[in-house]
Amino acid sequence: EDTCGGTLRGSSGLISSFDFPSSDSPGTAGGGGAGGLGSSRECKWTILADPGDTISLVFTEFQMDEKSDYLEIEGSKQPTIWLTGKNIPASIISNKNWLRLHFVTEGNHRHKGFRAQYQVKSSGELKSRGVKVLPGKDNTNKLSLMNEGGIKQVSNYCPDPGEPENGKRIGSDFSIGATAQFTCDDDHVLQGSKTITCQRVAEVFAAWSDHRPVCKVKTCGSNLQGPSGTFTSPNFPIQYESNSQCVWIITASDPNKVIQINFEEFDLEIGYDSLTIGDGGEVGDSKTIIQMLSGSFVPDLIVSMSHQMWLHLQSDESVGSIGFKINYKEIDKDSCGDPGTPLYGYKEGSGFLNGDILRFKCQFGFELIGERMITCQNNNQWSANIPICIFPCFSNFSAPMGTVLSPDYPEGYGNNLNCVWLIISEPGSRIHLAFNDFDLEPPYDFLTIKDGDQSETTMLGRFSGAEVPSHLTSNSNILQLEFQADHSMSGRGFNITYSRQQPHHHVSRSHHHPTILIKQGDGSAYRQQVTRVGQYGEDHNLVLHIEKTKELIVDFRKRSDPANPTPLCTLTSYRELR
């Protein structure tokens, strides 16, 4: 099936539904077109602008069947707009820096669909249909441009960009090739391009390379100094304030170093709140932006190109999230920093300079998810995050010892799981399980452990909750571990190690190879047996440590030691009597 839609960026563009302008020609959407409008399909577009900018959407054609076709729009002052029919809708202006369009057609009709143009505009700029009329000048470079309103005079000069509120403009030449620079008052932060250039657009008029920036008042933040430190969003780990404009500038103590940051925690309201990170000390300059982050996914490391880095947190008027905790330190120039090693994995390579390559592998039994190789790029950023090593949901193990983990342990195993692990040891041996950590949602998520192969099994236990189970030992050489999780909530998961126990060989009862039965609750008889074992051990340089009064079979073996004339005995095995 064809696809359509997508994420659109840029100062302007065109969006068209399927097969527009006719049912026999392909679509011409900025985000791509798809098959015929007559089939049952849907399309989604997201228009993204810079923070602080808004988007105007103007419809030039609109024909839909009211019973089967509709266009849903989100991101304007009205939470959701539903459009259908044959009348051209009014223009729509976003109240954020994004618009989402969702087009659905379910019928067999041959209507055209829709065609719309979008334009990104800076905050405060007049939003109107048609071509912007540039101020006339009495010179010899006048051109003519036909518009809906008739003939308008335009020149080879860009319009006066003005000055941002709470800021200043440097430069008064508005001819083609000239530049204008902007600064903000000390208690404000610049948002947008610090420098814009007047340039020729098409063949008929001139325009600035970007919108005039805006200056927003700082509400929090600070200036930080190297060589290292930690800072957080306001109120962390409680949610940050709404309508925040926080700015941090990190400066290395050594001007020949660069700044590296990594995130311990990061969670911003996705799509509405953002953390912009840039190089240098010119806060807000779009030309210096390294990353713009929202949601909960972040790079392992971010490294500046210079001895300074700026960070700008912006939040809207609605609900926020917990924010972030960031560690920073200064490192050598032309370096991407040490990205670390995946949990349950290892890396090959020790260089972190531009051009260096790191390779990653996982421990036995784990699967690598992500890039096996990453490169330190010339912009001091790694080409990708380090991969992760996950434990598969289905696997067989035959190694003498190993580890069994729930998926994504210890971050939480997720929902709707049915995992099976089979541990197979050599015939005649047994398998010992040690539970290192255990946390499952009771009673809906549980781990079942079965002894024996699939044709004949005995259940050793079913476990749930947060209590760590006792150690288990199989009676056969095969163990099955079955893990089930329902559709909601989850715990930390589990961490289990297994080991092979060699077969227990029969030793005849004799003075030199005694097998002594100690029964729990035997009273004086029990103490007599312990005393006898202790005396026997002392006679043969053996110290016996009995930690619990269980029913045990203790097996002592004499071994010769030429270096010591006194025979030595070792405790080679014990087993519980159940």
Describe the structure.
With 578 residues, this protein is mainly β. It has 6 domains: 6-121, Jelly Rolls (Sandwich); 143-216, Complement Module, domain 1 (Ribbon), CATH 2.10.70; 218-332, Jelly Rolls; 345-390, Complement Module, domain 1, CATH 2.10.70.10; 394-501, Jelly Rolls, CATH 2.60.120.290; 515-576, no CATH class. Helix content is 3%, strand content 43%. The protein contains 1 helix and 43 strands. The strands form 12 sheets. It has a 5-stranded mixed β-sheet, with no helix packed on it. The radius of gyration is 35 Å and the shape is globular. The two termini are 63 Å apart. Residues 20-38, 124-154, 505-527, 546-552 and 554-578 have low confidence and may be disordered.
Secondary structure topology:
Elements: E1 6-8, E2 12-16, E3 41-48, E4 54-63, E5 69-74, E6 80-83, E7 92-93, E8 98-105, E9 113-121, E10 143-147, E11 150-154, E12 167-170, E13 179-184, E14 188-191, E15 195-201, E16 205-208, E17 214-217, E18 220-225, E19 228-232, E20 245-251, E21 257-267, E22 274-279, E23 289-293, E24 302-303, E25 308-314, E26 323-332, E27 345-348, E28 357-362, E29 367-369, E30 373-375, E31 388-390, E32 394-397, E33 401-405, E34 417-424, E35 430-439, E36 446-451, E37 458-463, E38 472-473, E39 478-485, E40 493-501, E41 515-518, H1 524-539, E42 552-559, E43 568-576
Parallel strand pairs: 1-3, 18-20, 32-34
Antiparallel strand pairs: 2-9, 3-8, 4-7, 4-9, 5-6, 5-8, 10-11, 12-13, 13-15, 14-17, 15-16, 19-26, 20-25, 21-24, 21-26, 22-23, 22-25, 27-28, 28-30, 29-31, 33-40, 34-39, 35-38, 35-40, 36-37, 36-39, 41-42, 42-43
